[in-house]
Amino acid sequence: EIEKSSGNEQVCVFTSPTSLTFNSSREKNVYRFNFDRIFPPSSTQKDIYDFGVKGIINSVLDGYNGTVLAYGQTSSGKTYTMQGEMEQESTQGIIPRMISHVFNHISKNEGIDFMIKVSMIEIYQEKIRDLFDVSKVNLNIREDSIKGIYVDGASERYVGGPNDVL
């Protein structure tokens, strides 16, 4: 909003899905940047999910491990991208979309029994905290030949549907 109200030319111009230019009025220079993918302000939550997450969740449903991680500076939009606004489907973020994706997949597989356990942790300042039991802090990541990689001591809860997870 500050950039828009200053009356200057557009500072950040999204020239393609993989590149942008940055117009510096202070330095009177134009910088070009290339990335794997850029989502301009007009992008929707669905655009981000479909491009960056849907394939990971499909792989998880095929038996592979997958991770979706939000990383960035304070106030850069991580919470909005991951959680979104729950009231409307169009503004829901990655997490509610992942949950719906998994349970929609399960509902289409008649004759197969599923059991789903959920852990919720936060990694902040290199410390892992259990979000179900906040007294569990500074948990450790372990690896086991049977369990694979896991967070030792993290609480697990059985869930029966999307609302249980949310």
Structure description:
The protein has 166 residues and is an alpha+beta fold. It has helices at residues 2-5, 45-52, 54-61, 78-82, 94-107, 162-165; strands spanning 12-16, 19-24, 29-34, 116-118, 121-124, 127-130, 140-144, 148-152, 157-159. It has a three-stranded antiparallel β-sheet, with no helix packed on it. Strands 4-9 form a two-stranded antiparallel ribbon. A two-stranded antiparallel ribbon has the order 5-6. It is globular, with a radius of gyration of 20 Å. The protein starts with a helix and ends with a helix. The model has no long low-confidence stretch (mean pLDDT 90).
Task: Note the topology.
Blueprint: H1 2-5, E1 12-16, E2 19-24, E3 29-34, H2 45-52, H3 54-61, H4 78-82, H5 94-107, E4 116-118, E5 121-124, E6 127-130, E7 140-144, E8 148-152, E9 157-159, H6 162-165
Antiparallel strand pairs: 1-2, 2-3, 4-9, 5-6, 7-8
In a few lines, what is going on in this structure?
The chain has helices spanning 2-5, 45-52, 54-61, 78-82, 94-107, 162-165; strands at 12-16, 19-24, 29-34, 116-118, 121-124, 127-130, 140-144, 148-152, 157-159. The chain is of the alpha+beta class. A hairpin with a 4-residue loop joins β2 (19-24) and β3 (29-34).
